[in-house]
Amino acid sequence: MRENTTRPTVLPVAPTRGRLRPLGLDEVRITGGFWARRRHTNATATLGHCRDWMERVGWTGNFRAVAEGRIDRDRRGREFADSEMYKLLEAMAWEAGSGGSGGSGSTLDADAAALTEIVARAQQPDGYLNTAFGHPGQQPRYSDLEWGHELYCYGHLIQAGVAQARARGEGELAKIARRAADHVCATFGPGGIEGVCGHPEIETALVELARLTGEQRYLDQAALFVDRRGHHTLADIEFGRAYFQDDMPVRDATVLRGHAVRALYLAAGAVDVAVETGDDALLAAVVRQWEAAVARRTHLTGGMGSHHRDEAFGDDFVLPPDRAYSETCAGVASVMLSWRLLLATGEPRFADLAERTLFNVVATSPSDDGRAFFYANTLHRRTRGAVPATDTDSPRAESSLRAPWFAVSCCPTNVARTLAQLPAYVATVDDHGVQLHQYADAEIATSLADGHGVALRVRSDYPSGGTVAVRIVRSPDRPWTLSLRVPEWTAGATASLTEPDGTRRVVPPGTADVTRVFRPGDEVRLELPVTPRWVRADPRVDAVRGTVAVQRGPLVYCAESVDLPDGRDVDTVQVDPSVEPEDAGDKVVVAGEVAAHAEQSDEPWPYEPLDRPAVSTADRTQIVLVPYHSWANRGPSTMRVWLPTTRQRTTEP
Amino acid sequence: MRENTTRPTVLPVAPTRGRLRPLGLDEVRITGGFWARRRHTNATATLGHCRDWMERVGWTGNFRAVAEGRIDRDRRGREFADSEMYKLLEAMAWEAGSGGSGGSGSTLDADAAALTEIVARAQQPDGYLNTAFGHPGQQPRYSDLEWGHELYCYGHLIQAGVAQARARGEGELAKIARRAADHVCATFGPGGIEGVCGHPEIETALVELARLTGEQRYLDQAALFVDRRGHHTLADIEFGRAYFQDDMPVRDATVLRGHAVRALYLAAGAVDVAVETGDDALLAAVVRQWEAAVARRTHLTGGMGSHHRDEAFGDDFVLPPDRAYSETCAGVASVMLSWRLLLATGEPRFADLAERTLFNVVATSPSDDGRAFFYANTLHRRTRGAVPATDTDSPRAESSLRAPWFAVSCCPTNVARTLAQLPAYVATVDDHGVQLHQYADAEIATSLADGHGVALRVRSDYPSGGTVAVRIVRSPDRPWTLSLRVPEWTAGATASLTEPDGTRRVVPPGTADVTRVFRPGDEVRLELPVTPRWVRADPRVDAVRGTVAVQRGPLVYCAESVDLPDGRDVDTVQVDPSVEPEDAGDKVVVAGEVAAHAEQSDEPWPYEPLDRPAVSTADRTQIVLVPYHSWANRGPSTMRVWLPTTRQRTTEP
C-alpha cells in the first residue's frame, strides 16, 4: 500500500494508505445525467423533506426536551431516532461541500447550524449525548448495549462532525462529535466497559475521526471495538448472536451474516481499521467475507439481506424475489464497504458491485420527487397494495409504493447522505495516474501523485448510452495513465476503447489503461455494450429456477403491471428467451405471452399429478420492461424482475 | 343441518347441529399402525416431557408465585406461558378419556389433579386468572389486549375444563374454567370492555363451554367476540391489524390472512358460532376463506403461513420452500378448522386437508421419541445446523433438528392435545349411517341416528399400504350406509371398493357409499393407489418452478442428505421425472443425478448471461426419498421436498 499525503479536500473517506487515493467533493463534480438529476432532487427536495419530518414526528424535539429537562415525558420515536438527525447533518455537509446541486450552500449551512445548535444543547458536560437513555426517568446509560444503539448514534454523530469539518471547516458540530468521541474512549477504552454496540457503526466513524484529527486514540478505540466483537459481550438474543456479528471474531468469519446493515457497517469499519493499522490479515478476512456474500447471498440488483424477520442475510442461495428484503440501508452500507475495499486494493470488482448497487438499490429507494422511499426493495411484487397516506409515517414499507417516512426511518437520510457524497465515488488517483470508476457527466480537477495538476471532462449519457468520452482539459507534459473500469456486466459482449490517436481495441472486463503524454483536447472513448441481455441465475438460487431477467448495462429491468394490457398483473407474463430483448428508448421490449385472466382462475388445490396435461391459450405478444429503479412511480402496480419462460408453460416441469 | 342429540360421549367438539355427528373418544379406538404408535409416544413420553419442562422453566411455578404473592419478582416465560399448562391439562384429559394409549389413566388423573390444584390457587375471587397481569407490581388487567394474551389463555383454560368434564366428569378444572368464563362474560359482555384479544382462541372455547353446559350466554359472548373483530378495537401495530384479523369483519374477509394460528383459531371459532346460531352467511364466509387459503396459500404438506417475520400467511402463491414457516400450531389449527367444517357440511374435501396436514405437519413436529419438536416445518433445509442442546430451551426452531422446548413453546402441548383427541377424527354418523374419514387400525362402536347399535373393526396399514378393510361387528337388521372417504390424492389413479358380496367397482375421489343390510362379518374393502407419484405445482408458485415432488398416498416425500453418497448435500440432487418413482418399503427411489462436489464450486457472481453454455458431469444414479414427517431423526442433515429436474441442468433456463 502507498501512503496518501494529506490534502485539504472534501473527502468522505480519507484513508492514510491504500492502493488508490480518493478525490474530494471539491475535485469531482457531476454535471449532468442520471446522477445529477438524483442529486438535484436530493438537494432541493429530500434534505428539506427529512428536516421537516423529523421536526413533525418530534425527533428534533427530543433534543430540545433533553435541554429543557422534560425528555422522560416527551421523547418520541425509536431508541435510534437521534441518528437520523446526524445522518441529515452529514448529508447537508457533503451537499454544501460539493458546491450544491441545486440547493444553496448558504441555506444549507444555516439549516445545519440551526439543527446543530439544538443538538449542542442536549450534550451532557461529560460528552454523553443521547435522548433515549441516562436522563431522569429513563434507563441508565449503556444499560442495553444489545438494542440501545447509543454507540451507533455516536457513530453517525461523528460521521456528521467529520463531514462538517471537511466540507466547511471545523465548527460546532465537529466539536460536539469530538467531545462525544472522547467520552466513548473514556468509557469503553481499556479499563472501561468491556462492551460493543448491538449495531456497528461507531467503528468506521472513529477511524474517520482519527484520520481527520490525526489522533491515535480514536483509531485504537475503533480497533478495540472491532476486536472485541465476537467474544459474546452481548447477550444471546432470540435471533442469535450472529444477528449483531457477536457470534465469532471478525477475522474468523468466512461470510457476511446476520442483520445485513450491521454486518456491512462492521465490515466497513474493519477495513478502515485494517488499512490504518496495516493489518493485512483483517483486510483479507473482510475480502473473503465480501466474496462469499457476493457469490451466494446477493440479489441480481446488488441487494443484500433476504430475511424479513431479522433483516438478515440468509443461508447461501436463499434469494426469493418475492421475499427479497434488500433493505435500502444495506445497499448504502454495501456501497460503503465496496468503496473502502476499492481504495485499499484497487480491484475493479468492488466498483462493479458498487455500481450495481447504486443503480438498482440506492437509486430505487427514493421516488421521482425525492419525498418518498422504499425501506425494502423487493424483486417481485404480487399485489398492488394501497396508496400510502402521505401525511403519516409508515410502519415499514411493505406496500407497493414508497412511503414518506417510517417509524424506523433510517433509509431517507441514508440515501440523502449517499447521494450527497456520490461524486467522490467517480474517480481516484494513484502513482500512475487517474482511475475512473463510475461513469457520469463529470468534471474532475485534481493533482497526480507528483503534484502536477490534471483535469478531465467526462461526457456520457450512461447508463442510457454506453459511450464514455473522457476529454483531457489539463495535463502535465509527461506520460501518465488514464484507467477506465470495464464493468463485469460486459462479459460475453464487446467493449472497446479508442485512444486519442484513433487506435481502437477491444477491452475485456476489468481495467483498461491508456498510458501516454496527454494533451489538452485529447479524448479517450470507451464504448460499452448497453444492448439489453437475458440473464440467468445459478441453479442453486432455487427461487428463480425456470426464469430469466433482463439487464441493460448496469440496470436490472422489470415487468410492471401498468405496462401490461387490460390491467393484467405481472404474474400473467411469460417470456421467450430465444428472442433477444430489444431497446425501446430507456425501456426494453421482449417477446412472450400474456395469459388471459381466465387461465388464472383457481384450482381448488395448487398441486397436481405431473402427468396431467397442461393447456395454454395465452397470446403471443411483446412485453415492455422498465428499469427496476423506476418502478412504482406510476401508482400501485405489480412487478417482477425474474420472468418465467414460455417453456415452463408446457407439461414439462 | 340436523340437530345432534346430546349423548354422554367424550367429544372434543360437540356441535348441537351439523351435517355429521362426531363420535367420542369412548366410541372410537385406534388400535394399531401409524397413529397408534404416535399416540403411544405422546401418552408415555410427551405428556410427561411437557409437565417436567414447565416445572423446570418455572411456568408452573408462576401459578404458585401468584398464590404466594410473589409473582412480580418471580414470573418466568412469555406473557402466554399459562396457556401451555392448560393445553397440557387438555391433552391429559383427552388421553385419560380415550382409555389411555400406554399411559395409565389413573396416573394421568393424578398428574392432572395436582396441576389443577396449583392452577386453582392462582385464581382470583372474581374469576380472573392470569399470572402475567393484574397482580401487585404487574401491568393492570386487560391493559394490553394486543399482546397480553389474557383472553387467549382463558380460551385454553376453558378448553381444558371442557375436556376434563367430558372425559372424566365435571371436576375442579371445569369449575375453574366456568368461573373464568363468567368473569369474561361480565367483563367483556354488553356494557363491558369493547375489546377482543390480540390472539383469537376464546371464541371456540366459549362455544364449546356453551355446548357443555347449555348456557346461552357463553355462546352469546363468543358471537360478540367474533362480530367485534375487524372494527379496529385493537391498535394498529407494526405488522398491521391484519396480523390479528382486526382489519375487517370476519364475514367480509375473502381469504385467511395475517398470523396463521390466529387466523385459523378465529375461523374455527366463527364456524362454531355459525353452527350454533344458524348463521349460514358466516359459515359461508369461512368456507370461502378456507377455499382461497387452500388454493393459494398452502404448502404441499398442508402447511400454512409462509412468513417468518410475523408468522403470517403471505400473498397468494408466495410459498418458498426454503422460507416455509409452516408453524406446527398452524397445522393444529388448520385441522381444528377443517374438522369443524367437515362436521358442518359433510364435504370430504375438509377431511382431505386434515389428513394431509396431520401426516405432513402435525406428525412432522415431534421427534421419534416424542421429546423434541419442530416449531416451524420448512420444506427445504440447506445447512445441517448444529445439534441443539437437550438441556436448554431453544429461541425458536430454525435448526435442522427438533428442540426439546422453546421460549415460545406452543407446539409441544398443541401436538399433545391433538394426538390425544385424534381418534375422534376417524368417523362420524348421520341419518344414513357411518362415515369413515381417516384410516387407521380402529374399533368403532356407536349408535346410528335411530339409536341402533353398530360396531365396526377397521384393519389397515395405511398409509404404508392402501387397503382399508372394514368388518361389520354389529349391525341393526335394516339397511344403512357405510361411507368411505376416497382421498383427493387418488385423482388420476384408480381406487376401488369391494362390497361384502364381492362386487368391485372403481371409486372416484369423494365419498364411496355402500348401502345394504349389513351382517356381522361382512367386509367392505377400499383399495387406495399408494404407489408413489410425481407432483407439480401451479406455475404461480414461483419458488418451485422447474421442480417436482413425490407424494405417496397422503405422504409427502423428501430427499435427505443422510441418504446421499459421500456426505453430499441435497442441493446436488436433480431428478428425472420421465422415470416413475418406485416403492422401496416406506422409502421411495427415483432416478436422477447427483452432482460432484466440484461442480458446486462458486462463481464469483451467481448470475450470468443466458447464452453462456452450461456443462454437467453429474452421475446418473438412484436417489432415495423418505417420508417428510420422518426427516431429521438421524442427526443434522439437509433436506428438500421440491426437487429440481434434470432438464434444468441444460442451457435452457
TrEMBL record, chains A, B:
SUPFAM superfamilies: Six-hairpin glycosidases
Domain annotation Non-reducing end beta-L-arabinofuranosidase-like GH127 middle: ranges: 434-529
Pfam families hit by this protein: Beta-AFase-like_GH127_cat, Glyco_hydro127C, Glyco_hydro127M
Non-reducing end beta-L-arabinofuranosidase-like GH127 catalytic domain residues: 27-423
Start and end residues of each Non-reducing end beta-L-arabinofuranosidase-like GH127 C-terminal domain: 532-644
Molecular function GO terms recorded: hydrolase activity
Annotated source species: Streptomyces spongiae
Keyword terms of this UniProt record: Hydrolase
A biological process from GO: carbohydrate metabolic process
Protein name (database record): Glycoside hydrolase family 127 protein
The keyword Nucleus belongs to this UniProt entry's keyword annotation: no
PANTHER family: DUF1680 DOMAIN PROTEIN (AFU_ORTHOLOGUE AFUA_1G08910)
